[in-house]
Write a structure and sequence with these properties.
By secondary structure, this protein is mostly helical. It has nine helices and no strands. It is elongated.
């Protein structure tokens, strides 16, 4: 009697699916100019985004608005949570980086694992955070405009819309 082969594990099937999709995305992105792809990479780089809320928190801009401080603290805490969660999942999954993904990293690699993408998770976090914080962003702009900030006074009309 012949023994049935053991079906692949869920982790193996997910890794195979991830590898297949990753290669497909890599293939269809080949026509795009390399500088555009590098700009997209930078847009999710933690070395770029994590210092921003810290630096802005200590500027006069943040001292004039409790809403700005709230947004900056929320961004920073979200980034820390993102780093911890992505790092933990990468440690558990340990999917190696694709061999065809060469020459695109502008910064040094912190780890050798590719799943989940820290860049992608940060971009999704920023988009979701700003979308969910739209009312607070609006209140921050109104508060900065009323505080006499010249930039906001000259570029935001009384209804809160951009001028020009």
């Amino acid at each position: 009697m012949e023994k049935k082969p053991k079906p692949p594990s869920l982790r193996h099937r997910l890794t195979h699916l991830d590898t297949t999709l990753s290669l497909h995305i890599h293939t269809i992105c080949q026509p795009f100019p390399r500088p555009l792809l590098k700009a997209l990479e930078i847009s999710g780089d933690g070395l770029f985004w994590i210092p921003i809320p810290i630096a802005l928190f200590f500027t006069p801009l943040a001292s004039k608005s409790v809403h700005v401080r709230f947004l900056l603290v929320g961004l920073f805490i979200g980034f820390l949570f993102d780093l911890i969660l992505v790092g933990l999942i990468k440690y558990l999954v340990r999917r190696p980086r694709p061999v065809y993904n060469t020459g695109i990293h502008l910064t040094f690699s912190v780890d050798h694992w590719s799943f989940p993408s820290g860049h992608s998770s940060r971009v999704c976090f920023i988009a979701a955070f700003l979308y969910l914080s739209m009312e607070t962003v609006y209140q921050a702009v109104v508060q900065l405009k009323s505080s006499g900030n010249r930039f906001f006074s000259e570029t935001i009309d009384p209804d809160g819309h951009m001028v020009g």
